[in-house]
Amino acid sequence: MGKKITISIIMAVYNRADVVEQAIFSAVNQTYKNIEFIIVDGGSTDGTIDIIKKYEDKISCWVSEPDNGIYDALNKGIKIATGDYIEVLGSDDCFIDENSIARVVAELTEDIDILSATVIHVDEKTHLQMLWHNYSARNQDTYNYRMIPHQGMFVKRELAMKYPFELDLRVVADYKFFLTCYFDDSIHIKYVDFPVVFYSLDGVSSDTSKELQLIQEKNQVRTYFGLPLLPPPPPPKNIYLKRFLKKIHLFELVRYLRNRFVKKGRKPHSCKWGICRWCGRGN
Fold first, then answer.
1. Which pLDDT belongs to residue 208?
2. Which residue in 115, 121, 155, 253 has a CA-CA distance of 20 to 30 Å to 176?
3. Helix (H) / strand (E) containing 153
4. 130 - beta bridge partners?
5. DSSP labels for 83-128?
6. How many other CB atoms sit within 10 Å of the CB of residue 180?
């Protein structure tokens, strides 16, 4: 690109005073300065607005008003944005380090419509982290129709405007957006291997009702594209053992030991941010 690339970071938030400062801190302290940082708040009443105001001089634009869920808030932010590329940062996530955006910009060229980087999952309860990559989508012949890391996607603003998030999808509108772009041969997606965001795992997969909603909505999207449907979630395993361990207050310890030493690829979270709830630093 002839001119210096502008990255629009959009954050939707509602009543997340417990986590949002970490996300904001990581965004406003990027070394790459050609950033437009937009926060769309849903009318928080828990102190979130006070935290936003604390960093107001470093935020390009913020609004606080009722919305129709996270995708409605993100659509609002996209309409406000003026940057070349848009990245969605979760209010409970944060960038890997202060050079995250600079590394992305170094990979961007005029012909790239979407850049897909990886992210690192961080479990909120155990503070163990694991890489979430984008390898499954790199080859259309072997693609298994899984979602790539959304927080690692940098999308041309014109493309985000053309395909706004659908509000009837409460949890997978980003999945439909990605598949719409993926199956369009005119859209150039570039994949890189480095992570850009620490992505919070807040336990959705352990909530049966949310897991069922997730599968139902994914199947709605898969039906739209004529893709194989996902099976219903299996019944919970070892439910009686889980109840017993909770009763004797050992469930979290056993969960940590299992995830740390039995499941591969997981290790304790580590970063250099001055504010990090997983490391126990700052607010």
1. 53
2. 121
3. strand 153-156
4. 121
5. SSEEEE--TT-EESSTTHHHHHHTT--TT-SEEEEEEEEEETTT-E
6. 17
Residue 280 has pLDDT above 50, yes or no: yes
Give the strand pairing for 128-132 and 267-268. Answer: antiparallel
Q: What residue ranges do the domains of the chain occupy?
A: 7-204
Residue type, 39: I
**Pick from 166, 189, 175: nearest CA to 85:** 189
Distance CA 18, CA 277 (A): 9
Q: What CATH architecture does domain 7-204 belong to? A: Alpha-Beta Complex (3.90)
Digit-coded pLDDT (tens) for 231-278: 987 777 787 888 888 889 888 888 888 888 877 789 999 999 999 999
For residue 155, what is the DSSP state? E
* Secondary structure of residue 85 in the 3-state scheme: strand
In this predicted model, what pLDDT tens digit does every residue of 164-215 receive, in sequence order? 999 999 999 999 999 999 999 999 999 999 999 999 987 443 445 678 889 9
The residue whose two tokens read 């690829």 is 265
